Amino acid sequence: MTKLVQTLILGVLVGGVYALLASGLTVIFGVMRIINIAHGALMIMGAFITYTLWHYLGLDPLLGVVVTVIVMFGVGWVVYFVTVRPVRRAPVTSSVLLTFGLAFFLEGVMGFIWGNSARGSRPGYVETSFNLGSLYIPKGLFFGCLLAVVIMVALQLVISKTWLGRSIRASASSEDAARLVGVNIPMVAAITFALGAASAGAGGAMISIMSTFVAGSQILWITRLLSIVVLGGLGSVPGAVVAALILGVGESLVGTYVSPLWSPALSIILIFVILVVRPQGLLGTKLREDVAQ
Amino acid sequence: MKRKPILLAFVLVLVLALAMLAVACGGETTTSTGAVTTAAPGSSATAAPSTETTGTTVAAKPLRIGTSLPLTGSRSVPGEFEKQGYEVWADLINAKGGLLGRPVELVIKDDASDQDIIVADYNALISQDKVDLLLGTFSSLLVLPSSAVAEKNNMLYITPAGLSPKIYERGFTKVFCSQQALAPDAGKVWANYIAGLPADQRPKTAAYPTLDDPFVSPVIDGIRTILEAAGVKTVYTTTYPEGTTDFDSIVNAMVAAKPDLVAQGALFDDGIAVIRGFLKAGFKPAWLYQTTAPGQGKQYSDGAGIENTEGIFYHVSYAEPAKTPGNAEFVKRYHEMFGPDPIAEDVADAYAAGEVLAAAVTAVGSLDQTKLADYLHTNGVQTILGVLSWDAKGIPTGEMMIGQWQAGVVQVVLPAEAATTTNIIQGWKPGTK
Asked: Could you state, in order of their start, the residue ranges of all structural domains in chain B?
């Protein structure tokens, strides 16, 4: 019983971090209809920045995430205007191709700046746990999950309660209509992409304390994140949260009771199932194709 | 109007793809070597046809040696170490006049830890770059396909890694490994040590988590066979895929099984992750053995925490304090070129591969690939790792050493005749300052 409860605890904590990693990806698609394959690379860039702040300035990664988020917002802004904006109105396949190439370009840039040595932030709490009897809650994962919740709540508040958020939702619903009521579509698109990059950076800060990483680690995450986004419903942050928890707990149970060899397959299996049973995802919105733009 | 964004997208993709190829995947490094001072008449240096023999400095045609290494991707850490080893070797051998009187020039490609790319790279090295000789790469996963390219093109292939038995079961005649033993025997000395402990000190139970990899899996299988025969009960085994990022579930399962000993088939980040996982769970198996990962020097101790490495065992082919011929010179030059950090095992293995290649070329006196291979099949070579020798299949016939992290440095503890210390820490002691 202890083993099962421990498995569930670990799964929920990891799922919380997954939710943060995937939230930016789903927001970008929801507003811009762009599947950002470079999201994993942006996460790893955030991990490198967080590591650099920790290693050279002694700034705790969970505090350094504030700086990382700001820097990654700027990176996202530049990336959007240089590469993404020209293909924003192109078919989805074009943006997939573009961001795929962008992912490897960013990987090369990171390798050039930071080299290919493995990095990892090791603040004192990362290898200790809270103990509840025979159960343990890793402190690094717990704080990371807590921070992920805070950031996602903030993101959701921005989207639901602010004028910017209303503009983002209006743009996602109908760009032409949003433009008619005075929404600056290009600016909203840029801010959305930058917000997505910023949340990727925050996720990267979590990664920097969860494991070691190199520039090439970006490829390890994108499949999992895409499955979360598809499972939860493209464009739905609450959906991404639910899907992330399902995947986190599922991977933990499969890894413990079946085999770790099957854990990566779980995300693919979930994609297959959800596309057959409920293509719009758990909390996604089904659109009529004949009126969709 | 609709075509313009699509066209722009493809242009952007093409630009980015070219940048990707240039920066991330196809990077080629050439180490130029400069002129070679020829030998004065009567000296013992090897003369080459393209140089004068009057003692004047002339520019001899470089001897180009090609390799593709995982300088990016999942195996970039050891890949970079191997590059360093080759560069030190090229530097030292050129200082002594090169090979066959010609300066050695390394042609290094980056295979991004990808099997498809490495096949393309070695084909390019042979057919387009037209290198004179080849050197191998890191990891059995990459050696398997690349050695096949070399064999198909009738070229000698000496690899610093590639200890999977699968590599040598294909009937190839020109593939050699510059380490002492293959994977199934890599941990044998340590397993026999554990099996030979008095019954009250010997661990009763063991767990064997391993990466799904053609090298590390056989190492763990070899250890498990010996320990099970000695009565050490297996309480947990698992294989995890490459790219696994969350090891907490694996650690959780081991915590529940409570093994006295854990032997993990670990490449690098997985080894660190399991150590962290144990610490988070507050579980410390009495004995901890890991393949490969502990051999990554400072990167390993930085990742795991140097205080947590105390007592960890691993098989090792090289020890920096070793008194083998040429080692002092190698150590000195390495630190001059790459700084004061301890020398990772993969650096030395690559250097030894260069030594083996040089020995064969010098002895044969030509670049005839078949004669070079025949020489190695019938002769041992003195290297910084000791004397290396091979059987008819190219399988090394020596014995791997066992290293242990002690007080933040690696010591060779077994076998006794190769040991750099008589002290063997009895088990894993994390948190030791």
From this structure: 23-40+61-180+324-388, 184-316+400-418
Is the pLDDT at B51 greater than 80? The verdict is no
**Encoding tokens for residue B128?**
């387009």
- Asked if the C-beta of A107 comes within 8 angstroms of chain B's C-beta atoms, the answer is yes
pLDDT in tens, B71-93: 988 888 899 999 999 999 999 99
Are the C-beta atoms of B74 and B336 separated by less than 8 Å? no
Indicate the average pLDDT of chain A.
Answer: 87
Residue B395 has a pLDDT of: 92
Return the exposure string of A203-219: e unless at least 16 CB atoms fall within 10 Å of the residue's CB, then b: bbbbbbbbbbbbbbbbb
| CATH superfamily to which B184-316+400-418 belongs | Response regulator (3.40.50.2300)
Q: How far is CA A183 from the centre of its chain?
A: 26
- Contact with chain B for residue A140, Cβ under 8 A: yes
- Virtual torsion, Cα B250, A228, B269, A125, nearest 10 deg: -80
CATH architecture of B23-40+61-180+324-388: 3-Layer(aba) Sandwich (3.40)
Report cis status (omega within 30 of 0) of the bond before B415.
yes
Contact yes or no for B293/B259 (Cβ under 8 A): no
Q: What is the pLDDT of residues A173-193, one digit of tens each?
A: 777 887 888 888 888 888 989
Structure tokens given for B171: 């009937």
Distance in angstroms (rounded) separating the CA atoms of residues A103 and B17: 10
Per CB-CB distance under 8 Å, the chain A contacts of B212 are 261
Residue B238 pLDDT > 70, yes or no? yes
Question: What's this model's pTM, rounded to 2 decimal places?
Answer: 0.80
Amino acid code (one letter) for A201: G
User: Is the Cβ pair B9, A94 closer than 8 Å?
Assistant: yes
8 A C-beta contact, residue B36 and residue B93: no
User: For A89-93, B98-102, B300-304, B348-352, which range has the lowest pLDDT when averaged over its residues?
Assistant: A89-93
What per-residue confidence (pLDDT) applies to B433? Answer: 65
Residue type, B380: G
Number of other residues whose CB lies within 10 A of the CB of residue B352: 30
Contact at 8 Å (CB) between B133 and B157? Answer: no
The DSSP secondary structure of B27-38, one letter per residue, reads -EEEE----EEP
A14-53 residues touching B, CB cutoff 8 A: 14
Cα distance between residue A42 and residue A23, in whole Å = 13
